[in-house]
Amino acid sequence: MTESFPRQSAATRNFQLGAPRSFHINEAGDQVLFLRSETGRDAVNSLWLYDVAARLERKVADPRLLLADDGDIPAAERARRERMRETTAGITSYSTDFTGNLVGFALSGQLFTGEVKSGEFKICEVTGPVIDPKVSPSGEYIAWSNGKDLYLCNFDGTRELNLTAETSEDTSWGLADFIAAEEFGRMHGFWWSPDSTSLIVEHFNDSQVQSWWISDPATPSKQPQEVHYPATGTANATVGLVKITVSGEKKPIIWDNDAFEYLISVVWQKDCDALITVADRSQQNFVTFAVRETRLENVHEVTDHEFVEVIPGQPRWHDSQIVSVVDNRTTDTRELQIAGKAISPVGLQIMSILDIAENYVDVVATSDAINRDVLRISFDGSITELAQGGVATATATTAGLQVLIESRLDTNTRSYHLRRGVKTEHYFDSLAESPSFTTEVQVIKTGPHEVNTAVLFPRDHVRGSKKLPVMMRPYGGPHGPQVLNGALTYAADQWFADQGFVVIIADNRGTGGRGPAWDHSIYQNFVAAVIEDQVAAVTAVAAHFPDDVDITRVGVTGWSFGGYLSALAVLERPDVFHAAVAGAPVTEWLWYDTAYTERYLGHPEKFPEIYTDHSLISKANQLERPLMLVHGLADDNVVAAHSLAFSGALLANKKPHTVLPLSGVTHMTPQEIISENLMLLTVEFFQTNLKG
Questions:
Q1: For residue 499, what are the domain limits?
Q2: For residues 303-336, b (16+ Cβ closer than 10 Å) or e, as one string?
Q3: What DSSP character marks residue 16?
Q4: Which of 613, 646, 645, 612 is closest to 627 using CA atoms?
Q5: What tens digit of pLDDT does each residue of 531-551 get?
Q6: CATH number at residue 675
Q7: Residues of the chain with pLDDT > 70: what percent?
């Protein structure tokens, strides 16, 4: 019997298992470390080595041999993995010295260290639980957080030292605070100096952050979990930095925390002063300081009257000058700058900085929002294309070597190859499975704003033979473009289409990749731009395929912001959208976190009417169409109260609807049975409610 796509997709974690990841090239350029599981259905990662000279891949650390049980993951590490959307087990991250020979990692809260050359690893008996361990560049030490304090010991596990000795129950050292991890993409809370003599360490205090309680109603004997959740308009954690020597001497790094309460990034490059970037609560003002011995020096500022975007990999030093990515509102370009001068061309949108070398900067960039190209931009402005015409990213270049990861529209696989310049020297084995079918997608421009819109029909559909119901599958939120030139992006969409639907994915205004004006078009107004562009998309697709699209039967479904969009669509435009499945929707923006919500909607005390306009709960009396709400009850990002309170408001207004609560499920749904059945139930819901 042929396995169904929902089952295969669920079992392979959306075809991610078995693929190589987390590459690290050592300084000598003679080896590449990476993580990979045994098969496309194995979630347990091992540490692997590619020997450049021998041209061989070999396993160097197997968690199944080192530790039989990977189930006892510390609570702080579980939270960290949730922020990272990490769905695998085993070795999920690792750290090395500059040679790449000495490696440290955590398994089940225990510290493991060892040598790549010998393949011998051991448990270090240290104070745990061990979270996010990092080997010093010299290989002499390893440091870690236990959720409360930052510890350090010799690499062999001897001479342990508590560097922070915190007495307050509300203060944690060496971890990224919730907002930094969830909204700014910063997953670490301490950084080694390049000479291995000291560390910069984050500490944060949650005492002023309100407590919420996440319970498991299906297990009434289980105690609810307390989480400090900084909801919109309420207090954030108080964040600070301290420079600590390996002997334990402390020197606070002081800036005006009242004016700049967000710690965005810390970068400590070789032979350079450390850079820290902070932002004010409105995120309209970002300042980068160089950490001198006894003072901070302001070396870079970015301001915007609406908000400043966080761009990965920057700012950084190059020859005592700052390399950064800055929005040029005049040319509508997110440009690469050195010392305030643009070196990238108008219209090329820089998505992230990968690496800075003596004569060039490697970036991920796009000129059409559909492709993600890896480009090498020289300081004279010349550009070398390292990967173009698909969806790509890459590691930093070390000793002339770089790992590129690429996916394209003409293949269901991703390639992972080691490059020297533009020449491929090795393709890393990927054990990831692929869908049993190929996707057939067309991308068109829709509406007055020329929204990138993907359209998929059933593969057996004969054009003009009959009109099909529509299933719109948007995300629609900031940083969330879905219309990309990679076939795996559309695997689930093709399966949904094959169930008898025209699937439409439209990247409305605000989704990113098309310049500052596009990103800022949703400022203080998610509702208008998002819904207008989705309506324009389905209307344009129906006009483009008049004999194939039944515009009287349109369903819409999405998760997270896409869940909000889906519910909003049937509330605001029931004349266009006739049924919705809303997964983990934000129904009340006052209950979502500070940084994300206030960045786009402003502070609720200053703009209360904006929050009322964006609340689904306030619109509950408008529901006229079938709606199914799906929500994980263990979700600590968009808490289940969003769907439950919305359901209560719908009930109070005598509006029939369906609620599907997922016990023990967070904002992710990696559980195989749940993931599979959600796809099947979505199809069943639309087949029932979009009958011709």
A1: 441-689
A2: ebebbbbbbebbbbbbeebbbbbbbeeeebbbbb
A3: T
A4: 646
A5: 999 999 999 999 999 999 999
A6: 3.40.50.1820
A7: 97
CA distance 486 to 403: 18
167-179 per-residue burial string, b: 16 or more CB within 10 A, e: under 16: eeeebbbbbbbbb
Distance between CA 241 and CA 250 in Å, rounded? 10
Helix (H) or strand (E) run with residue 497 in it? helix 491-498
Give the burial class of 555: count Cβ atoms within 10 A of its Cβ; 0-12 exposed, 13-18 middle, 19 or more buried: buried
What digits encode the pLDDT tens for the residues 442-476? 999 999 999 999 999 999 999 999 999 999 999 99
The mean pLDDT of 309-324, rounded to a whole number, is 97
Number of domains observed in the structure of the chain = 1
Q: 167 in a domain, yes or no? A: no
Inside any domain, residue 643 = yes
Q: Which of 628, 627, 632 is nearest to 674 (CA)?
A: 632
Q: Is residue 216 part of a domain?
A: no
Would residue 660 count as lying in a domain?
A: yes
Cα 241 → chain centroid: 24
| 3 state SS of 8 | helix
Kindly tell me the sign of the dihedral angle through the C-alpha atoms of 635, 641, 646, 652. positive
Residue 155, SS3 per DSSP: coil
pLDDT of 671 reads 81
- The whole-number pLDDT of residue 42 equals 95
Residue keyed to tokens 């989705």:
534
pTM of the model: 0.94
